[in-house]
């Protein structure tokens, strides 16, 4: 603690320092104890993430550190808390799966912690170099997570695909950073914004495009989504749940900070790019998922579509739009983690099943699970009064206020089309003949599913406080 007070600004990064030290300590424990420490590592990792979240919530100090490269503000604090929640739940979801699939690796929760550290640095980055370092710290850990099950050919293939395409996107982002630095002479976001306000050249616009392309890959937005379905299907299911939650929140937060922090003077340029990516993502997510039979691939296309809906709010370029994006990511993460808790419960005596048809007749064999999964499907489709409806309502409202009428109409139409494949799952659950029953749910899955279901169904009860928190965070940029 004395070190935190002696180095200027280091107290602002106390949660990151804590996670970095904790991850190294856990790694030493795991090395000396061996593979038998997997379950202990999972529990300790979740506990340490909870402590890091407490450091965030109970240290209200804001400011800049490391010569302005690291920012702590209400926006960063909120998004970091979301990242920690997503990571902690993902680790909890993996406990039973790793035991039953006999692939327990003590390295997995440590890798998740290191990825979480990278994500938190991404959220607070106020400099292109800091942004890139955080992004690569996250990405390198995620590559290994995707291929953590070394005995599975599908997992190895998923990890390789993710690594190759991730390296390509990182290269494009780094090239964009070099262009922006070359034409502005700055890597700090304030310096870049000041230089852009004075003059914008064609080379600088190319730099913005390349940076947005690199970030769009991380949120799996079209046309940089090609890795998502294969990686989601091939990676172990708890890893897929992790990929679908915390990294998306961190990447979206990083995108918001980049466009509103560094590129605000070029809003007319980047809003066109965001609008195109949003339309393409909503369209592909709506139509490509219709023919899917594997539920993890379906969730991959669902994720692509939802990132498109979230970008509708960002395209508005207003405080209401940013607030809508924040609320969308909160609701999206809750719905996604609950859905993956259901997917992890799709286990029979002979192992895991992943086909959508395996959910047939679930209402007769597991009525409570069927009820919550139905609520989650309706919410993902955007049916009122569930949480997913309000997520879309806020981003569409911001787009309409910004006079983006065409984007709003396309979004509503894509939402209607996308409702088809969610309703198909509901039809299977309630009206088809039951398949072989699943084994009883693990306690951690039951807890995650219950909390997600309650949040989704009774969102209107907490809507006011959450909206106030999101609005406070959005005011950081306005």
Description:
The mean pLDDT is 88. With 478 residues, the protein is mostly helical. The strands form two sheets. The protein has a two-stranded antiparallel ribbon with strand order 1-2. Strands 3-4 form a two-stranded antiparallel sheet. 76% of the residues lie in helices and 2% in strands. It contains 21 helices and four strands. The protein has helices spanning 2-6, 14-33, 38-57, 74-101, 107-124, 128-146, 153-184, 189-198, 202-218, 228-234, 237-244, 246-262, 267-288, 295-316, 319-344, 362-365, 367-381, 387-401, 405-431, 443-457, 459-474, and strands at 63-65, 70-72, 347-348, 351-352. Strand 1 and strand 2 (70-72) form a beta hairpin. The longest helix is centred in the middle third of the chain and has 32 residues, at 153-184. Helix 18 packs antiparallel against helix 19 (405-431).
> Could you give the distance between the termini?
34 Å
The DSSP helix count reads 21
List SSEs in N-to-C order: HHHEEHHHHHHHHHHHHEEHHHHHH
Q: What topology, given as strand order, has the largest sheet?
A: 1-2
| Main structural class | mainly alpha
Q: Overall 3D geometry?
A: globular
Summarize the amount of helix as a percent range: over 70%
Summarize the main sheet.
2 strands, antiparallel
Rg from alpha-carbon coordinates? 21 Å
Poorly predicted ranges: none
Q: Report the portion of residues in β strands.
A: under 5%
Tell how many strands the DSSP assignment holds.
Answer: 4
Mean pLDDT equals: 88
